[in-house]
Design goal:
Elements (H helix, E strand, L loop, with lengths): L3 H9 L7 E4 L17 H8 L3 E4 L1 H4 L9 E4 L3 H5 L4 E4 L6 H18 L3 E4 L10 E3 L7 E3 L3 H8 L3 E4 H39 L1
Parallel strand pairs: 1-2, 1-5, 5-8
Antiparallel strand pairs: 3-4, 6-7
């Protein structure tokens, strides 16, 4: 997984070229499995600034919203890519094909736009980074990546969870505010020194 410093570098970039692909649920699109969204304000701001394109791998694959939740059974996203693990929804239907298809379309669109970074929804069977649900539908987490995340990482992308991205963005804002405050203080001190010097004259 890419490090936070790289995330911050992306946040600071001043141009409006698309730099990231992001999970569409993070900007407010109601494409989460239950028909809701998972808005992340930092990711939404990135999208509204024209620096991100939002996509949902599961909807790209043809799956409808709402839909039964799905989890990876028998492994991780990497193992789904190699045919050693599979994706099932809570009704017992195998949906591996859809997850692979949507992930490949996500990758193709990223390549089309020349994008090499992605911010994805944490813990999702498609988009999860570092941790995903374990296939038992018991809200139990295990180490691993979702199918889309695994495919992007395999192709050399920098991939971040929305939670890591938010944390990095908050750090950037905090340091920017601190620098501005320091600048204002220095400006105030400088003005006081000039006034004092004029009085001595």
């Amino acid at each position: 997984m890419a490090q936070g410093s790289t995330v911050e570098a992306g946040i600071k970039t001043g141009n409006t070229k698309i730099e990231y692909l992001v999970s569409a649920c993070l900007i407010g699109k109601p494409c989460f499995y239950d028909g809701t969204s998972r808005v992340n304000e930092s990711v939404k701001a990135l999208f509204e600034a024209g620096k991100a394109k939002a996509l949902c791998p599961e909807e790209l694959s043809g799956l409808k919203t709402p839909r039964p939740p799905a989890e990876i059974f028998g492994g991780t996203g990497e193992q789904v890519l190699s045919g050693k693990a599979f994706v099932y929804n809570r009704e017992g239907r195998e949906v591996t094909f859809y997850f692979l298809n949507g992930s490949r379309q996500f990758l193709a669109i990223a390549n089309e736009y020349g994008v090499r970074k992605a911010v994805l929804k944490a813990r999702s069977p498609c988009c999860g980074i570092g941790k995903i649900y374990d296939g038992t539908f018991s809200n139990t987490l295990t180490k691993g990546n979702g199918v889309t995340a695994a495919l992007l990482l395999k192709n050399g992308f920098e991939v971040f969870s929305d939670e890591a991205f938010s944390k990095a963005a908050a750090g950037v804002r905090k340091r920017t505010a601190k620098k501005q405050l320091t600048k204002e203080k220095l400006s105030h001190v400088s003005k006081k020194a000039i006034r004092a010097k004029r009085k001595k004259r």
